[in-house]
Amino acid sequence: MRGSANSTLSIDDCCLPEAGLYCRNSRLTQIRFSTNSLFGVIPNNIVGLDALEVIVIQNNRVSGIIPPQIGSLSLLTILDLKNNSLTGPIPSEIGNLKSLTQLFLSNNSFAGVVPKEVLALPKYVSDPNSRFFQ
Q1: pLDDT tens profile 51-108
Q2: 97 CB-side CA count, 13 A
Q3: Is residue 62 within 8 Å of 38, Cβ to Cβ?
Q4: Of 14, 12, 56, the residue nearest 34 (C-alpha)
Q5: Number of C-alpha atoms within 13 angstroms, CB side, residue 66?
Q6: For a pLDDT cut of 90, what percent of the chain falls above it?
Q7: Could you tell me which residues come within 8 angstroms of residue 114 by beta carbon, excluding any fewer than 6 positions away?
Q8: What is the reported pLDDT for 121?
Q9: Can you give the pLDDT at residue 100?
Q10: Is the pLDDT assigned to residue 125 strictly greater than 80?
Q11: What's the CA gap between 125 and 79, in Å, rounded?
C-alpha cells in the first residue's frame, strides 16, 4: 500500500507508533492506518507478519481482494477494513481466526455471500444483524 505522498513503509520501520506501526519484542503486532488516504492492495505476504494482533486499515482507498492468507494470522484479534474499495468474495479463511473479537468489513464492494466459516465465528464477531455485513 502507498500513502498519498507515494511513500512506502517497510518492516524496517516497525516501531513507529506515529505512523501506525506498533511492535513488541521487535515483532510487528499492530497496523493502524485509519483515514490516511492509502491506496493499493493488501499484500499476500501479510502472512509473514505472524505476530499481528490488530489490523485497522479503515477509511482509506484500499482495493482488490482480502487475501485468503489473512486466515493464517492466528493471533489476530481485530480486523477492521471498513470504508474502503475492497472487492471479491469475503474469504472463508477469516473463519480460521479463532482469536478474533472484532471484525469490521462494511462499506466495501464484496461479492457473493458471507461464508459459513465466517458466520460460525462467535456472535459478537459476526452478528448478521450488525452493520458488519452492510
Answers
A1: 999 999 999 999 999 999 999 999 999 999 999 999 999 999 999 999 999 999 999 9
A2: 28
A3: yes
A4: 56
A5: 25
A6: 65
A7: 90, 126, 128, 133
A8: 87
A9: 94
A10: no
A11: 10
Q: For the chain, give percent helix, strand, coil, nearest 5.
A: 25, 25, 50
Phi-psi bin for 20: left (phi > 0), alpha (psi -120 to 50), beta?
Answer: left
Grid coordinates given for 25: 519484542
pLDDT at 109 exceeding the cut of 90 = yes
H or E, element range at 55: strand 54-56
Read off the C-alpha cell for 11: 518492516
Judged by DSSP in three states, 30 sits in strand
Assess contact for 80 and 101: CB atoms under 8 A: no
Burial class (CB in 10 A: 0-12, 13-18, 19+), 127: middle
26: exposed, middle or buried (Cβ count in 10 Å: 0-12, 13-18, 19+) = exposed
